[in-house]
Queue: 2 jobs
Job 1
Amino acid sequence: KISGTAPAKLYLKFLESENVEFQLTSNLKGVELSYPPIGWVKEINGEAELKVSGALGTEFVLNKISLVSPELILEGSAFQKVDGSFTLNFEKLALRDVFDLQLVIENDGALEITGGQLDMQEFLKLPLAENSSKKSAPIKVYLDELKLHEEQIITRFTAALEANGKGRFSGSLNDLASFDGDLERVEEGYS
């Protein structure tokens, strides 16, 4: 959700190739941003730093997308493929002490988490976890660290799930015991 107005600086560079390069920056003061699935809100009087740069013309490219706020950091880029589809690449998506991830989102909604850390106890408190959708897209996960509890950490956690929620997973508990298994979505969640 986006509401309000904020001043921004917009720089445009018109190139001979009929492309236009752009750069936009704003402190977003006067704008309220929220993303309810993760319980994040940037208040209307709060400040955040937004930087976006890219090019328009024969193709659309976002070289840089950066949003830095006290609770959320997002840094990434986007590009349009030859077939017109988009790929979003986030070098960093961090929410408080819940997660700090690197991920790629494809045009069809397929998600690939390519690294990072996630605290499962904090993640389960998010609205996203409490109200998960029955609709899903394929997801591939690689986490450097999945924290289950203070002394229980899964390292090198991998999972590949189909849109129906079925898939395989593996990891190492406290770097002592490796494991793997199958996941299947059931009425109450996963088994």
Job 2
Amino acid sequence: PVGTSRAPGISASLKPTVAAGLAPSAIARLDRQELARLADEAVRAGTLERTAATPEQVIALASGLRGQRLFGELCALGQSEAAQKSQSPTLGCLYAQALIESGELAAATPLLRGLVNSSAELEAKGLLGRIEKQRYVNQMLTEGKGQSSQLRKAIDAYLEAYEGNAQKPFWHAINALALLELGKRKKVRDD
């Protein structure tokens, strides 16, 4: 959960990782248990294997946590002092994704809006689209029908990310097209 000081589900009895394996590229390849243990240490002490964590290591750890879908641990890491010291837009996007996956859409939105003019702009815009899509899905689940205006917001967010980038990132276009198709199947019309 958001706001915890310890990553959830961590056993204090886990064996430490070999210090030589703490290169950022090695961190991202660790198994779930080791990633969770390292996240707990980074959250509690700001260290990895009792050595101050570098921004690169924290980003690699966050990426590994996302890859293993350890979103509770990623939320805790994103709020930690170690993460705050890094001031990395990439880490901000990883943290925002964990918030989204944890249902904390309102907390993720301002974080991502603050990253729109950063080196992580493309990812931030895509995640803003993801938030709008999740709001639509949540409406469908709770009310039995999503509001067309909410679906339009999600489509527009993905299209803005696609059209606003000279490289035309196809994944944003795919998300927009998928939502357009969903609207068609659900017979959603513009208000």
